[in-house]
Design goal:
mainly alpha, elongated, single chain
Length: 83
């Protein structure tokens, strides 16, 4: 665990107190961890682009077919591949 001394504004302190109380956390360090990890989710997992969602929905509507076992798959799709 890394220790750091930080300076925060009064408003940031109030927000941390609210987060701490709302999520029943022991101290402000846990509140800071919580807030940072929540922000990380938004930052690192951005929402999908609308064109991707449209394409995915189109693909999901396509007709599927049953392949069967791994051996059936090999027979049907890997005919030209030698062992």
């Amino acid at each position: 665990m890394v220790k750091a001394m930080i300076n925060i504004s009064k408003k940031a302190n109030q927000v941390l107190n609210i987060v701490k109380a709302k999520h029943n956390l022991k101290d402000k360090s846990q509140a800071i961890d919580f807030v940072v990890l929540e922000y990380r989710n938004d930052l690192l997992d951005p929402p999908l682009r609308p064109e991707y969602i449209k394409r995915a929905k189109k693909i999901m509507k396509e007709k599927t077919f049953h392949i069967g076992t791994a051996e059936d798959f090999k027979r049907k799709f890997l005919k030209d591949v030698s062992d």
